[in-house]
C-alpha cells in the first residue's frame, strides 16, 4: 500500500458506489430448447436487448452436457471436461450465425443454427448446451473521479438445450429403485431411474400420497429430463395427517407438451408402495 | 418480390419464436449499492434494503436453475476489499417482501413449466473493510447463470 493511499484511508470514509449505467438492462432468449434433425437441419433463436440506454455484447458457444442429479435429488447440468468418443455430442458440427454481436438498445438479433453432421453419423440423438453470454458494454459509470467509487458489473449466462435427431427415435426408462419413509412430519420418497433407447426421456414425474381409502391427499408433478440416470428425492409435508397406513405412488410418462419440439414417446411406469405415518 | 418474401419469412419466425416457444428473460433492475463505508466497520445491505441488487426474470414454460459466480473480494489495483453476498427469491415486486432466502453461492431452482411466471432475485451483501483499508476505486463482476434443467 503506498503512502498516498494510506493517507486517504485515514480520512475514515470510503465511498463505495456500486453504480450501474445500465438501468433496466435486459437480455431475452427464445426458445430455450431447440430441436432439430435430419429433415430440418436449421433452427433459429431470438436474442433481444430491451435496455433503453446500453449496448450489450452477446456471444454464443456450445458445450457438451446433460442433466444429472446430485444425492439430494437436485438436477444440474453436467459438463464433462473432455468429450469421450462415444459421447452423443453435436458440438463439433453445429454452428451459430452470428456467433458474436453487439445489440444496441431495443435491438434484437435472430441467430441461425445450422447442423452439418458427418455423413456417416449413426442413427440416434445428439446433444449440446448452447451458452449465451451477455454483458453491457458500458456497465460501470466512472465519471466521478473525485470520489472513491466502485463499479460492480453484471454478466449474464443463459444455458439452453439443443438436440439433433437422426433416424429412428426411441426412448424408455426402468425404475431402478423406489423407497419411502416417514420422518419429522414429512414423507420422503427416493426414486431412481435408468434410461433406455437412443433418445433422452423428456417427460413428467407425478408423485402422490393416498390414504387407506385410496384418496389422493398429497400430489406433486415435476418435469424431468433423463439422459442417462435420474435420482430424485421428493418430500411431502404431511403435518396434520392422522397416523396410519398410506401409500406413495410414483409415475413417469412422456405425456408432456413441448413448445417448439416433438417429445419422443416412451414407456410409462407406475409403482405404489406402503408408507406408515406413526 | 423476393425481398418481400424474405421480410415475411423473418416476421413469421419472429412471431413463432415469441408466441409459441419457451422464453427466458433476465433484467438487471438495480445493482447492489453500499454508499459510505467506514474502514474497520462492516457494512451490511439486506435484501429488503432499497440499495440491494434486484434482478427480474421472466420465464415462459421452462424450469431452470439460478447460479451466481460471485467475487470474494473487490479489487483496486493490488488492494482487496472482502465482500460476501446473500440472496432471496420472490414473485413479489415489492422490495419490502423479499421472499425466500437462498444461498447465492449454491444457487436455487425455479419452476415455470406449466405457465408464465415472474421472479425477483434480490442480492444483499456485506463488505468488511480493514482498519487500514486503502481508498481506491474497487470493482468486481457478478456472473448470473440461468440453466434450463428440464430439457
Structure description:
The complex is a heterodimer of chains A (278) and B (151). Chain A has 278 residues and is mainly β. Chain A has 2 domains: 152 residues, Immunoglobulin-like, CATH 2.60.40.10; 107 residues, Intracellular proteinase inhibitor BsuPI (Immunoglobulin-like, Sandwich), CATH 2.60.40.2360. Helices cover 3% and strands 56% of the residues of chain A. Chain A is built from 1 helix and 20 strands. In chain A, the strands form 5 sheets. In chain A, strands 3, 5, 9, 11, 12 and 13 form a 6-stranded mixed sheet that branches. Chain A has a 4-stranded antiparallel sheet with strand order 2-4-10-8, with no helix packed on it. A 4-stranded antiparallel sheet of chain A has the order 17-16-19-20, with no helix packed on it. Chain B has one domain: Immunoglobulin-like (Sandwich). Helices cover 12% and strands 53% of the residues of chain B. Chain B has 1 helix and 9 strands. In chain B, strands 1, 3, 4, 5, 6, 7, 8 and 9 form an 8-stranded antiparallel sheet that branches. In chain B, β5 and β6 form a beta hairpin. The longest helix of chain B is centred in the N-terminal third of the chain and has 18 residues. Chain B is elongated. The two termini of chain B are 40 Å apart. The model of chain B has no long low-confidence stretch (mean pLDDT 84). The interface between A and B is large, with 61 and 62 residues. β12 of chain A pairs parallel with β9 of chain B.
